[in-house]
């Protein structure tokens, strides 16, 4: 059955959504390949590298829920504009960072700006597309934005080797400017939900809880579990997160309405999201760093290592999104993660006698096939299960789950790799990645139910 053509406004909305999310995802991944160069320039070991990644993810994951509420209160387009401008300013600050501490602080501020971008972007799509057209639009959005997650290391590697790691963080200047221009051209009146408000106490409990928990997990190898600083901070963080859940039950306008989780595809999809995106973050970090520090590749080649996955995403994600809209997402969400798990296990062939073509490329190809089958149907299953009036908060919750899962995976990196990212640590990370992905596939098979659209 032919697919209806998009209107001019729909094309512009989709372009805005893609570009706004693109810069957030790009900066979340482009940093990975620059970590060794940052360490050489500013100092710091594995702990500093973890913080450079997680400082961004802490604020992004904690405040992405607030951004969903702000979109309802202030309007999606206004929140997008503020996020884009803030992202540009913090990118300049990161590029000029004189110390690791300054860089980490600037990354945390950038995460705040990034949190404003993704929920509003997806909410624009779900508000302007319906049924199979919505699945196709999310497929196109997925192809572009997930390609940014994978292409980030490629661009970062080229900039690190040929220019400077500092310029890596200025890659997003052009898409930021184009997105702001498209927002002006769109000319849509902004939409606000009457009576909407922001749950301030919920935001504080979520941010403090995540920050304290991640601090304990990252700093534990330095101080040890016996240190009151570590176990005390961890207990405090977990207590705050428990308080956040309690707050969501009683708040008048909760950031994360727990009633959403009564919808089967929503809660199952978010559980699958947690396992899958934890694996994606762990695999991306470990592969980007090990290929440079362990295998001795320059940053450009380390970034190019994942290029085949990017090509697969660009070529087939839109088609997979369309098929998932017609046939339902369950098959794709089951087979995709299992293929990725197989790709992760292929990394066990990496040895001291390193060969990209025989040891890494087969893994990247299989991983890319699985990723292409997974991401668009997963997003459609989660967002398509909730009515469009609540699409903003639904997309915020799903993105928060994805970012927090990645955040915790990186925070636990030292425990996963055994304290050092050598060859044995790399193999341990590959096994953990495969287990996480296989679990995501099993959860999808057991819990997701298909809804077909003509």
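Sequence proposed for the structure above (454 residues):
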């Amino acid at each position: 059955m032919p697919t209806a053509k998009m209107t001019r406004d729909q094309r512009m909305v989709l372009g805005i959504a893609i570009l706004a999310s693109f810069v957030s995802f790009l900066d979340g991944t482009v940093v990975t390949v620059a970590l060794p160069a940052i360490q050489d320039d500013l100092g710091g070991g594995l702990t500093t590298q973890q913080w450079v990644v997680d400082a961004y993810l802490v604020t992004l994951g904690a405040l992405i829920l607030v951004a969903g509420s702000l979109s309802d209160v202030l309007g999606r387009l206004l929140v997008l504009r503020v996020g884009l401008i803030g992202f540009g300013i913090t990118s300049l600050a990161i590029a000029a960072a004189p110390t690791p501490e300054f860089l980490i602080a600037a990354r945390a501020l950038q995460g705040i700006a990034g949190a404003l971008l993704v929920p509003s972007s997806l909410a624009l799509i779900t508000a302007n597309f319906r049924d199979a057209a919505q699945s196709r639009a999310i497929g196109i959005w997925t192809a572009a934005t997930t390609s940014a997650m994978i292409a980030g290391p490629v661009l970062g590697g080229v900039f690190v080797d040929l220019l400077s790691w500092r310029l890596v963080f200025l890659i997003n200047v052009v898409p930021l400017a184009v997105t702001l221009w498209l927002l002006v051209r769109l000319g849509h009146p902004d939409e606000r939900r009457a009576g909407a408000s922001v749950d301030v106490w919920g935001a504080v409990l979520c941010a403090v809880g995540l920050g304290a928990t991640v601090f304990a997990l990252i700093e534990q190898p330095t101080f040890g579990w016996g240190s009151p600083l570590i176990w005390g901070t961890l207990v405090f963080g977990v207590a705050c997160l428990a308080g956040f859940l309690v707050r969501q039950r009683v708040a008048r306008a909760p950031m994360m309405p727990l009633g959403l989780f009564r919808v089967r595809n929503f809660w199952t999809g978010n559980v699958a999201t947690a396992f899958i995106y934890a694996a994606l973050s762990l695999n991306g970090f470990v592969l980007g760093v090990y290929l440079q520090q362990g295998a001795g590749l320059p940053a450009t080649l380390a970034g190019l290592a994942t290029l085949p996955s990017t090509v697969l995403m660009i070529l087939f994600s839109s088609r997979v999104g369309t098929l998932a809209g017609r046939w339902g997402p369950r098959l794709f969400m089951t087979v995709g993660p299992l293929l990725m798990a197989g790709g992760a296990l292929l990394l066990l062939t990496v040895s001291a006698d390193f060969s990209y073509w025989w040891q890494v490329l087969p893994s990247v190809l299989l991983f890319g096939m699985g990723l292409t089958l997974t991401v668009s149907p997963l997003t459609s299953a989660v967002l398509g299960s909730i009515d469009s009036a609540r699409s903003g908060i639904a997309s915020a919750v799903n993105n928060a789950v994805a970012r927090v899962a990645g955040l915790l995976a990186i925070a636990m990196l030292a425990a996963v790799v055994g304290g050092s990212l050598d060859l044995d640590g790399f193999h341990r990370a590959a096994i953990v990645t495969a287990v996480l992905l296989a679990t995501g596939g099993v959860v999808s098979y057991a819990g997701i139910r298909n809804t077909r659209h003509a």
